[in-house]
Amino acid sequence: MTSSDVAATLPQACDFTVFGGTGDLAMRKILPALYHRDLEGHLPPDTRIIGVSRSEIDDDGYRAEVRAGLETYLAPEHLDPAAVERLLERCHHLCLDAGSSEGWHLLHDLLKDREHADETVRVFYLAVAPRLFGPTCERLAEIDVVDERARVVMEKPIGHDLASAREVNDAVGRVFEERQIFRIDHYLGKESVQNLLVTRFANTFLEPLWSSRWVDHVQITVAETVGVGGRGGYYDHAGALRDMVQNHLLQLLCLVAMEPPTYVGRENVRDEKLKVLQALKPMAPEDVDRDTVRGQYAAGLTAEGPVPSYADDLAGPDPQDAPDSWTETFVALKAEVRNWRWAGVPFYLRTGKRMDRRVSEIVVVFKEPPHAMFPGSEGATTPNRLHICVQPDEGMRLHLTAKEPGPGGIRLRPVSLDLSYADAFDQRSPEAYERLLMDVIRGNPTLFMRRDEVEAAWSWVEPVLARWADSSERPRRYPAGTPGPYAAAALLERDGRAWQETDQ
Ligand code: BG6
């Protein structure tokens, strides 16, 4: 361990300021995560949570909102009355418009006027519109609350493209040093995603197989059953490529493809992920035409019953206004990592809303045995596959070929070795935000995206966006509740392959 890793320890005092403190992200994710950590006694003893928003409420009003939020978003069995009261006591509210220059002295006074102000770790969580990231940081600098223990947390989207991502990074970087900037990709906080690192690097059996020598291809799927719901305003300007591929799916790809770091710590993992992003084969216009598929959900039938199309979701209650949007709600593409380990191995990625099932998984498909050694046997060998299920049923499944018991010849049958985390570990699996927020408080950036990673991901994605923007072909329609457009299946069929579904 380096001295900076050792320094990532829990402070005694923390002021955790949430800009957008009454918003959806705060109520749904941030406060429930802080509650769970507090319940288990992991928050620094002297922690205050300062919600900043335009709501004209006092501390008591905020506490009432937080209480309602916890009751809504936490499972009833996790609500411990004493722990709820303890968290509420930590909560304060400041009425402040992050877009205006008025009233910031109140935040200054609140942060400075406390015991141990000079030893307190200040976290500034920007759960607000990205256009406010830069101005908010400037104000924080003006009121002199950014010291070397301060940290800023940003949610995606970090930019809309490479140029705007650079602008945001520059603006925040004028106030905070890179080591103080925590860019959240919540997929990196998921237990099963972290376990991918452990599976690869705390075991030896996979490593000799983990390359183009034995791996035929890799599939990464993040399928959702939800539609865009009330997020149409944001989503219609983003689309699935920006919303999911540029960050979550590329991060998963990096963890699968990266080289072993010298140890799992602050910069090493990020250095290795960056190398993968930089090794992605750039997408020329003809590659985009051949190797990408974009789709948009039409009305369809799901397990919840009939659901409207994307356009109708955007229009809301008045379908007359259904806009003619070309925003993609589904993407499938074929990528290649051009390095010694992976050259020639396709990485197929797909993600979509309103698909037939909710599943996030990585499937590593190994090559067929070099020759058929069981002549006359019944059944066929199927390639070995390792399914790494990120959600909802976290675990792993290794598909093998076995001999079916019985006399009289050899019958080959597929079987699987199953590891379910729920069965193996009889304990609650913490939400991604719990891990990530504690890492922010501790000052450990390993699971956060560094500036160069975000920008490398945008560089790779941009030619796809540009080509699509020029295209006269609209996204392919797929009925809600289905696996996406047929073209996504054809993308693999063309290569003699098929998407592996979880239960296969
Ligand atoms: C978010 C996207 O980053 O991830 C959403 O903006 C998406 O559109 C969500 O629904 C998926 O996260 P999870 O954890 O539910 O898979």
From TrEMBL:
Substrate binds at H186, K190, E224, D243, K353. Keywords: Carbohydrate metabolism, Glucose metabolism, NADP, Oxidoreductase. It catalyses: D-glucose 6-phosphate + NADP(+) = 6-phospho-D-glucono-1,5-lactone + NADPH + H(+). It holds the Pfam family G6PD_N. This is Glucose-6-phosphate 1-dehydrogenase. One of its GO terms (cellular component) is cytosol. HAMAP family: G6PD. It comes from Nocardioides marinisabuli. NADP(+) binds at R54, K156.
